[in-house]
Structures are given as structure tokens and as C-alpha cells.
Specification:
It comes from Rubus argutus (Southern blackberry). This is Pentatricopeptide repeat-containing protein. Pfam families: PPR, PPR_2. PPR repeats lie at residues 180-214, 215-249, 250-284, 285-319, 320-354, 355-389, 424-458, 459-493, 494-528, 529-563, 564-598, 599-633, 634-668, 669-703, 704-738, 739-773, 774-808. With 833 residues, the protein is mainly alpha-helical. It is 69% helix and 0% strand. The relative contact order is 0.02.
Length: 833
């Protein structure tokens, strides 16, 4: 096997490679085995019969006679070329080229001849030309075949016949004749420049397979080709194998190899190569440092990124805006706003002028960390520097304002973006999404109208946002109208679109319509996602159809669906709400066996269900299991167990949990306080209950209807009518509407304290609100009037209760029909039946 030649001196060729049976059958070929070398003869002065075999043979003999005098051979060829009708045979050209390549002083003439021959249209196919050159070298004992073929490759490239050059080189490889590295590199470079990257890699791999790895320049070309093709991993493999094969890399090759590795990105290997480069005495360029710093940042390796920045400075390379911006981005990804701002301040101190990208990164970091004041300050600074904001920066700010400050701030910025003409559909969708999530559908509709007026065309996400908003407020008719309008606009609903509608119908309790939407989605060839299946399962569980949810899940499992934690949680929660705790615990065990890790939501559902079914000991076991597994407890988890203890009147355990909640840094919410107040009311400790209420008020935690009702009930039982009345007025002033339980507490309490007129007004208030009083309310009023001796009002209330279709309970019947009533024998007993 032959290797590359680094100099233009021709090498010995292999003589056993070419099967020339088809060539030897041609009559004009001379056979050195049977004929002696041709004698030197003068070129005839008389015209030659053109195109005949004897003419070609005579021309060959003439050239071969001047084998050691290339100048004379070329002169004779040019004289013949000027003769009318002269035909340049392939063998004639081949012999002349070999003669000219035998002497360094005529190399240039050979190159010129090849360039002229290849650029014409009369030459043979590349493989034929290669075969003739090789055959002539063998037959006439020329030793210049490798160099001639190298020059031939160069001529094809110069003539922009790149594919012919590849064909030529492939034929040479088949014959195990290899050009010098210089000319291989010329072909590979031409392929890369012509974006024939696959062909370049194929050719290079073929050479490597034959043990020929080229030189440093070859590797440089191939690594750049791989980078250009988007295959940095292949580039890294080329570099590694070439180094192992003994190719000595120079600084430029290290540079391009490091850039390739950084695109992987493999910052560890890039750092090793960079260190190796420095140990060899080369100082990496600023671009190389920048590239490696970028790779470190991309992989979250800020320690090495900062070290390289310092090393870069120590090598005399200045930190430019690209490096600084890259470091800022790294800090932002890590959530380190302080570090990002430090780099930004360094930029300003060093006299660098931040650009739009720099501002976008630091403003985005401020927004993600909730520092909207600094974000807006930078935004203002950017505009003062004459840098116009773009939609990406405004998007960061709008999302940040919506999350951390107010709709008003976000709206102002949004209006400014509209004035700048940069508000696009993505910015509109961000604001639409927030408004719809918050249930501000009217504001969202106004924004929609503004969007249409400004010529911004809504997309599928826009319609999804509006549908979500209407579903959130329970207006499924409008949500469905948005869906129909979306399809009329030619926008294709996605799985997410169908999922929004399904969830809305499930929340309204319209299971049948939700399943119709599911069927429509399947008919539209949309494959349900895990999120969609989760919505269906959760919807069934929430309407008390958990067993159906289990059956449906089994069908999905048959299709290789793997349920996640959310689906298991829905089913467990469904069973707990139905009181089927054994089924809930079975699903919990199946969940663990399937390798799905329970979350705090899973355990909270189980604890809540066990507490409600009076299985507090089992609930405590689950509680301790959750803590042993290291699951972080949230307020809801504490709340359900506190509520369980309070309902058992175990206020000691409830208080211990309440204290633990505070110790772990959690803040009690309304539900926790409400349960504790309810528990203290049940053990007649209104002092403790009112103390918790006062604490709620001081901490700004709102009281809900349940809390007010519990406090009012306790105060009325203790006879503190004034405080109870004040709390009731406070509740109404906050817009909290009393329910049937609240009215029952009020009327029972007032009646028991003989405040019958106030009790009657509450009954009238119920009527105005369209509420129907319960049997217990009427019983309390009847008892109160009975105690007052107002039998007429007691019987009137009894008749009113009957008129409303209410059946008196045993207490009412006993009061009205016992022997203490004189002259009441006429009272119809059937009314109490």
C-alpha cells in the first residue's frame, strides 16, 4: 500500500494492480514484452494521414524517442498539434505528460497541458484517463504516475469539475495509487466549499480505512466540514483518531478541534484540549477562550468559566462583550441575579457598551428573580442609550409584572409596546393567558378586540386562552363558541384545545358532553396525551364515578399507557371522597408497586379520607410514613390532620401539630385556623377560639364563611349576642353571603336566647335570598315561641312549615302534642305523622 507524499518527487508505483486485457486488444498499443523500444526519429515534414492507427503509433514512437528530452518532445507535439486535422489521442497525451513530469523544469508545462485538456470537452471520462495514464506508465517504464495523477486532480478542481475529481481519486484508491497530501487536501477543500460534505467525509473515511490519515491540514479541513455539517461529535472522533495515529496538531488545529468539542458541548474535553494546547507553548486566541467559556456556561460550569475568564486576561486577551454577556447568561441560568448584575456593572466600568442582547439577558434575569424595580430601571436605561426595545424584552417585563407586581404595570408596558409597533401575537397571548387564568374574561375580550383592531391575527394559542377563560368561569357555551370560531378560521385544534373543553365540561359536571369532546378528538386523529387522559380520569373521579375511571384506565393500560402520579392521585382522592378507603389504599399499594413515587398530595388525600372515616390511627401511620420518606409537608397536609384531631375534640394533638407547622416555617392558612376555631368551639373554649380569630386578623388571613359561622355559633351559645351580631355584620360587609348553616346557627342561637324578633328577621332574610328554611330552623322558632307562651305563633309556624312541604321532626311534635298544652286536643295528629 502506498502512502501520501509530502513532496512533488514521484514515488515507485505498484505494477500488479491493473488488468489491461481490454487495452492490450487495441491494435495501436505497443507491447514492450515483444518489441524493443522505438528508435529516435525526426518528426516527418510531410503531412500525416490523420486519425489512422499508424499515425498514433508514429506519434507515440516520436515522443518516446525524446523521452529524455522533454523540451523537444513538447516542441514536436506542438508542431503536430498545429497540423490540420491532428487528433490528440489519449495515449499521446498520457505519454507526453509522463515525459514532462520526469523533469522538474517541465512540471509547469505538464500542469498547463493538463489544465487545457481537462477544461475542454473532448477528453475521456476520468476513470478512462486514469487507466490510460497508469497503463502508459507501466508499459513504457515511467515513474511519474503518482505525480501526474495528483496534477490531474488539481486540474479537475481548477476546472470546477469537482465530482470528476472525486471519481478520479476513487479510481486511484482502487488502484492503490495515492496522491500527495497537498492534492488530497485540494480535493477535500473543494468538496467542503461546495457543501458536498457527505462526499468529503466518505472520501476521507475511505483513505483512513487504507491507513492513510493525511496531515494536519487534512484534519483541519475535515473538522471544519463536520462543524459545517452539524456533526461536531464526528469531528471530535476524527481529531482523536488522527492524534492516536501520530498526526502532530498545530495551534490552528487545536483551535478548530476545541470549537468542535464545544459544540457538543463537552466542556470537560474542551478544557483538557485547551490545557494541552497551552502546555505545547501556544497561546489560545481570544475566540478560543470565548468558545470554551461559552461551553462551560452552557453546562452550568460557572467555576471553570470564571477561571478561564481570569486566565484569558492573564494571557493579554481583553474581555469583550461576548464573553461578558455569556457569563451573565450563565449566572441567569443558575438563578444568580447578583452575579449577573456584577458582570453587567463590570461591562459598564470597563467602558464596554452593552447591546440589546446584553440588556435582554440581564432584564430577563431580574424578571425571573422578581426584582421588577431593577428590571424596569435597566429597561429605562436601555431606551436612554438609544436602544429600542424588542418584543422579547417586553415579554420578559410583562410576565414579570403580572407575576410580581400588578396588571396595571404590565398594561402600561404593553401599551408602550403597541406604540413602538413591536407587540406581536406572542405578547398578546401572554397577557390574554394571564387574564383568562385569573378569570378576568371581560378584560381579555377587550384585549382581543384591541388585537384585532391592530391587525394582529389570533392563532390557536389565542383561542385556547379564551376557551380556558370561559371554562374557568363556567361559561361553556362561550367556550364552545370560541372552539367553533377557531375551526372556521381554518385553525386546527390541538390535543390541548380539546383537553381544555373536556376539563371545562367535567368541572360543570357535564360528563356526557366531556366524553363527546373526547370522541371528537379521537375522530380528528388526535392521540390523547397523558395530560388528556389525566383530565378524563380526574373528571370521572370528581363526580363520584371512580369505579368507571378505573375501568377506563385499564383500557388505556392495554394500549401501553403508563399512568403517572397525577392519575393515581385522582383515583385515590375519588375513593376517599366516596368513603371507600379500602379501595383507596389498594390503589395506593398498586401505585407503589408500579414504581410511581407518591407525593404529598397522595398522602394528604389518604390522611383526609382516613380522618373522615374516623381512622385517625391509620392516618397517623400514613403521616409518619410520609415523614420517614423525606417528603416535604405542606400546609394542606398539616391542615387535614389538624382537622381530623379537631373533629375528634383532641385539641392537645391539634395544638401540637399547629405548633409544628409554625416551627417548620409554614404559615397557617384559613383552613387551618377554621379547623382550630371549630375544635375549640366544640370543647366550649371560646377564649382560645377568639384568640385564634384575633391572630388571623393581625396576620391578614381572611376569615371564610365557615369560620364566621363557627364563631357566631359559639358566641350565641355563651350568650354574647352583641359580639355575635358584630361578627355577623362584619361578615356581610366583606361580601360573604350566609348559607343555610349560618342561618340555622343564627336562628337557633337567637331563639334559644328568646331573641325571637331578630330570629324572625333572619327567617325573612332567608326568604328574600331564595333559601328554604329547614325543619331544624322552624323547630327552633317553634320552641322559642312555645317557651314564650305564644302558642298561636308556634302553630302558625307549624302550618307554614307544612305548607312548604316540610315534615316536623320528633322534637317539634313532642312540643306541640305533649300534655303541657291545655286546650290543644284539637291539634291534628296527622301533621306529625
Amino acid at each position: 500500500m502506498k502512502s501520501f507524499h509530502s513532496s512533488p518527487v514521484p514515488s515507485l508505483r505498484c505494477f500488479h494492480l491493473l488488468n489491461l486485457k481490454f487495452i492490450s486488444s487495441l491494435p495501436h498499443f505497443l507491447h514492450p514484452q515483444s518489441e524493443p523500444p522505438p528508435p529516435e526519429i525526426d518528426f516527418p515534414a510531410n503531412p500525416i494521414s490523420q486519425g489512422s492507427d499508424s499515425t498514433q503509433t508514429q506519434m507515440l514512437n516520436t515522443l518516446l524517442g525524446h523521452k529524455s528530452d522533454p523540451s523537444s518532445a513538447l516542441k514536436l507535439f506542438k508542431q503536430a498539434e498545429r497540423k490540420p486535422g491532428f487528433v490528440k489521442g489519449v495515449d499521446t497525451i498520457a505519454v507526453l505528460l509522463h515525459i514532462l513530469m520526469g523533469f522538474p523544469e517541465t512540471f509547469g508545462h505538464a500542469k498547463t497541458l493538463l489544465n487545457q485538456y481537462v477544461s475542454g470537452d473532448s477528453g475521456p471520462a476520468p476513470t478512462v484517463f486514469v487507466d490510460r495514464l497508469v497503463d502508459c506508465a507501466k508499459r513504457f517504464d515511467f515513474e511519474s504516475e503518482s505525480l501526474v495523477l495528483s496534477y490531474l486532480l488539481n486540474s479537475y478542481v481548477r476546472a470546477n469539475r469537482i465530482r470528476d475529481a472525486v471519481v478520479c481519486l476513487n479510481r486511484m484508491i482502487e488502484l492503490e495509487i495515492y496522491p500527495s497530501v497537498e492534492y488530497l487536501n485540494i480535493v477535500l477543500t473543494a468538496l467542503v466549499r461546495g457543501n458536498m460534505l457527505g462526499e468529503a467525509r466518505e472520501l476521507y473515511d475511505k483513505m483512513v480505512d487504507r491507513g492513510v490519515g493525511g496531515d494536519c491540514a487534512t484534519l483541519h479541513v475535515m473538522i471544519r466540514a463536520c462543524i459545517k455539517e452539524g456533526k461536531p461529535d464526528v469531528a471530535e472522533e476524527y481529531f482523536r483518531k488522527a492524534r492516536a495515529g501520530g498526526i502532530a496538531a498545530d495551534a490552528a488545529l487545536y483551535d478548530v478541534a476545541i470549537r468542535a468539542v464545544c459544540k457538543t458541548p463537552d466542556s470537560r474535553l474542551a478544557l483538557l484540549l485547551l490545557n494541552e494546547m497551552r502546555e505545547l507553548g501556544w497561546v489560545p486566541s481570544g475566540g478560543t477562550f470565548t468558545t470554551v467559556i461559552g461551553a462551560c456556561v452552557k453546562q452550568g460550569n460557572m467555576v471553570d468559566a470564571l477561571r478561564l475568564k481570569d486566565e484569558m486576561v492573564s494571557c493579554g486577551k481583553s474581555i469583550d462583550l461576548v464573553v461578558a454577556t455569556t457569563l451573565m447568561k450563565g449566572y441567569c441560568v443558575k438563578g444568580n441575579l447578583e452575579g449577573s448584575l456584577d458582570v453587567f456593572n463590570m461591562i459598564m466600568e470597563d467602558g464596554l457598551i452593552p447591546n440589546k442582547i446584553t440588556y435582554a439577558i440581564v432584564i430577563g434575569c431580574c424578571c425571573k428573580n422578581g426584582n421588577m424595580e431593577k428590571a424596569h430601571e435597566l429597561y429605562t436605561q436601555m431606551k436612554q442609550m438609544g436602544i429600542l426595545p424588542d418584543v422579547f424584552i417586553v415579554n420578559h417585563l410583562v410576565r414579570g409584572f403580572l407575576k410580581y407586581r400588578s396588571l396595571e404595570d404590565a398594561s402600561k408596558l404593553f401599551d408602550e409596546a403597541v406604540d413602538y409597533g413591536i407587540a406581536n401575537i406572542f405578547l398578546y397571548n401572554n397577557l390574554l393567558s394571564w387574564l383568562c387564568r385569573e378569570g378576568k374574561v371581560s378584560e381579555a375580550r377587550n384585549l382581543w378586540d384591541k388585537m384585532m383592531c391592530n391587525g394582529v391575527v389570533p392563532n390557536a394559542v389565542s383561542y385556547n386562552n379564551m376557551m380556558h377563560g370561559y371554562c374557568r368561569i363556567g361559561d361553556m357555551d362561550r367556550a364552545n363558541s370560541e372552539f367553533l370560531e377557531m375551526t372556521e378560521m381554518g385553525l386546527e385544534p390541538t390535543v390541548f384545545t380539546y383537553s381544555i373543553l373536556m376539563k371545562g365540561y367535567f368541572q360543570k359536571g357535564n360528563t356526557e358532553r366531556a366524553f363527546n369532546v373526547f370522541d371528537d378528538m379521537v375522530d380528528a386523529k388526535k392521540t390523547p396525551t397523558g395530560h388528556t387522559i389525566s383530565i378524563v380520569i380526574d373528571g370521572l373521579c370528581k363526580v363520584g364515578r371512580t369505579s368507571e375511571a378505573i375501568d377506563l384506565l385499564k383500557k388505556f393500560l392495554e394500549r401501553d399507557f403508563i399512568p403517572g402520579c397525577m392519575i393515581y392521585n385522582s383515583i385515590i382522592d375519588g375513593f376517599t371522597k366516596e368513603g371507600a378507603m379500602n379501595s383507596a389504599l389498594i390503589v395506593y399499594r398498586e401505585m407503589c408497586e408500579a414504581g410511581v413515587t407518591p407525593t404529598v398530595v397522595t398522602y394528604t388525600s389518604l390522611i383526609n379520607g382516613l380522618c373522615k372515616t374516623n381512622k385517625i390511627d391509620r392516618a397517623l401511620e400514613i403521616w409518619h410514613e410520609m415523614k420517614c420518606k423525606g417528603i416535604k409537608l405542606d400546609v394542606t397536609a398539616y391542615s387535614v390532620l389538624i382537622d381530623g384531631f379537631c373533629k375528634r375534640r383532641d385539641m392537645r394533638s391539634a395544638c401540637e401539630l399547629f405548633s409544628e407547622l409554625l416551627d417548620v416555617g409554614l404559615s397557617p392558612n384559613t383552613a387551618v385556623y377554621s379547623s382550630m376555631i371549630y375544635g375549640f368551639r366544640n370543647v366550649n373554649n371560646m377564649e382560645a377560639a377568639l384568640g385564634l380569630h384575633k391572630k388571623m386578623v393581625n396576620e391578614g388571613i381572611p376569615c371564610d364563611l365557615k369560620t364566621y359561622t363557627t364563631l357566631i355559633d359559639g358566641l350565641l351559645k355563651e350568650g354574647d349576642l352583641q359580639f355575635a351580631s358584630d361578627l355577623y355584620s362584619e361578615m356581610l360587609s366583606k361580601g360573604i353571603i350566609p348559607d343555610i348553616n349560618t342561618y340555622t346557627v343564627l336562628i337557633n342561637g337567637l331563639s334559644s336566647k328568646q331573641q325571637l324578633e331578630k330570629a324572625r328577621k333572619n327567617l325573612e332574610d332567608m326568604d328574600r335570598r331564595g333559601m328554604t328554611a329547614s325543619v331544624h330552623i322552624y323547630s327552633a322558632l317553634i320552641v322559642g315561641h312555645f317557651k314564650e307562651g305564644n302558642l298561636q305563633e308556634s302553630f302558625r309556624l307549624h302550618d307554614e312549615m307544612l305548607d312548604k312541604g316540610l315534615v316536623p321532626d320528633d322534637i317539634t311534635c313532642d312540643i306541640l302534642l305533649n300534655g303541657k298544652f291545655k286546650g290543644t286536643s284539637a291539634l291534628p295528629r296527622t301533621s306529625c305523622a
